[in-house]
Amino acid sequence: MTDNSPTYGQADASYQAAGGLEGIRQLVTDFYQEMDSWEGARKLRALHAEDLTLAREKLTAFLSGWLGGPRLFQQQFGSISIPAFHARWAVGPELRDQWLDCMARAIARQAFHPAFASYLLEQLRVPANRVVQASQAMRQAQQ
Q1: I want to staple 6 with a disulfide (CB 3.0 to 4.6 A). Which of 13, 37, 42, 118 is the partner?
Q2: Which of 23, 25, 30 is nearest to 113 (CA)?
Q3: What is the CA radius of gyration of the chain?
Q4: One GO molecular-function annotation for this sequence (predicted)?
């Protein structure tokens, strides 16, 4: 018997498991709806502009390439270092956890295979932790 399940993180397996660009758009829409409506994300929401249109476009474009699909962020906005970009804000464990919790809630709203949902959230912890590290390093360098 052969296991034909996709190996997430290789080629475009994660992109496909997310439902391609439309699936990613829905995930991002749900993520920002969670951030807007969940009381536990109030501090995180306060860091964002009132109009989330550009934030939605950028996160969708980033996740497309990050999940192995078209590198839309680079095509539309140029290259980016997520940790370096976010280091301008004082992002600590509380904000990181709010972001991850909103993403977990959004992932739970998708029709993702449970193995992919778990994989995706675990993988998103990596850049989230790097943002905290970069933010803390910038704060220490300014002292």
Answers
A1: 13
A2: 23
A3: 16
A4: oxygen carrier activity
Helix 93-108 to helix 20-37 angle (10° resolution) is 120
- Integer angstrom CA distances of residue 94 from 15, 17, 75, 83, 122: 29, 29, 32, 16, 17
Give the whole-angstrom CA distance, residue 65 versus residue 77. 13
Q: How far is CA 53 from CA 22, 42, 116, in A?
A: 16, 18, 27
Q: DSSP label at 110?
A: S
What domains are defined for the chain? Answer: 18-141 (1.10.490.10)
The per-residue pLDDT for range 66-114, each reduced to its tens digit, is 999 999 999 999 998 988 889 888 999 999 999 999 999 999 999 999 9
Confidence of residue 1 (pLDDT cuts 50, 70, 90): very low
Distance CA 134, CA 98 (A): 17
CB 73 within 8 A of CB 65: yes
Using alpha carbons, select from 41, 67, 65 the residue that is nearest to residue 52.
41
